[in-house]
## 1
Amino acid sequence: MSIKPLIILPDPVLRQVSKPVERVDADLNKLADDMLETMYDAPGIGLAAIQIGVPRRLLVIDLAKEGESPEPHVFINPEILESADQRSVYEEGCLSIPDYYAEVERPASVRVKYLDRDGKLQEMQAEGLMATCLQHEIDHLNGVLFIDHISKLKRDMVVRKFKKLAKDKAPGKMVG
Ligand code: NI
């Protein structure tokens, strides 16, 4: 297993639409393990493959709290089958947009189908934080970020801030 570098806003890679996973094999499982390790290291509770630069429809989630035993979930080619009319609001953050948080309203529960790491078709009725996290991560597979769900004013502000940060970090720039 290895920790991979995270893709950070405003990298256009984050706007790519990921392609379906065609084969659930040892390589795919190794990628899932690398993603889990990268996510635990960050630390975060969810990570999509595109966030480490792999445009495949694969995501990992672990909602276990600190001090609890890990509960890794791997979702391959996840698809939302049904969303509740009822909404809920969570303060969301993203490993690709470090240290920025904003309230996002989404359906309070979703029914999702996906392949597990054995390639077996599964369905999950997700509520609460799992529902929010799954929607956030599935958005990543479609090139959508949680800041796309907030006001344009706030989004423009955060994008501008990250563009400036990226520019300041650009190679060739001497900072004494
Ligand atoms: Ni994210």
Note: The chain has a mean pLDDT of 96.
## 2
Amino acid sequence: MSVASSSTSHALVAPGPLHFRRLRLVQGAAPPPALGGRWVGAGEGALHAALLAPEGAVFDAWIGRAPAEERRHGCVRYATDGDWLHGIAELDDRATGLQAAAHRAYTDLFVVLAAQRCPNLLRLWNYLADINLEAGGSERYRQFNAGRQQAFVEARRSAFEGAPAACALGMRDGALRVYFLAGRRPPLAIENPRQVSAYRYPDRYGPRSPTFSRAALADIGGGRQALFISGTASIVGHATVHAGDVRRQTEESLRNIAAVRQVAAERAGVEILLGELICTVYLRRAADLAVVREVFESAVGADSPAARECIYLQADICRAELLVEIEAHAFVPSGAVA
Ligand code: 3EB
């Protein structure tokens, strides 16, 4: 990878660099020229979840080579620079039910990707209302899992080993929303040795398993690679641990992140520092903010970039006993190992 070649075919030419910025913005400010991203707190199409900290609004921006115009297909809005693609599939699930809406959103998203130069998913962020609600005989998260997995299988996408990194959170209301980031090259899927792979969860967690890997490692051009760590909670093996204890759940989530980081660092051939992670912490109960923040900041270092950059959102986690979930990504130099 460090050896430059003058005779590579066009298909092997390295992509332009992908950049990320977590921007704090005042309400009404124009979004920066990004491929796309996620507004929280306030801003155009912000998540239907309270931003507990920091105050104001945050835009998580994915930035390519040049500003790109927004295009549409079905329920998907997206923009691409030819090397990277960011999009949002958004669909009101009230008329059709959530399983059909998830199936439709993912089917549209896969049609968009199949027609692009960058068909490989790097990361997915799933948001849906009332995630733990029992509706029509099953929990809405399970309905979502059924529709999502069916769309992956029909599109001949990896629904098990090699599934993309993801998260799935419950919003206070609103349509199903799936944010996605894709590139030209497939990332390397990474699992957590402390946890059963989510796509192998036993069926007591639902007839169709969740479709995600614990993390993904991707070359993002410019001599850097990105580690995308999926939503990570207090699950060991496949069991929820520390029910009712938000402090212990936060500590266990951080142990899971440490385990994923360790595997990823071996694969990446470089160190991945905890204090350099860009994290989003989802809390079921706003009142837990102080405890979760204290545990998080003492783990990452109160003066670290991770503590400074972290955002805390109120959201429901996909198992009713879970009180906290942490997702993260990190950027590191490309390793010595090709
Ligand atoms: C878990 O580990 C917690 O359904 O896409 C984390 C990350 C979770 C992604 C998803 C769910 C998802 O099972 C929940």
Note: The chain is about 20% helix and 30% strand.
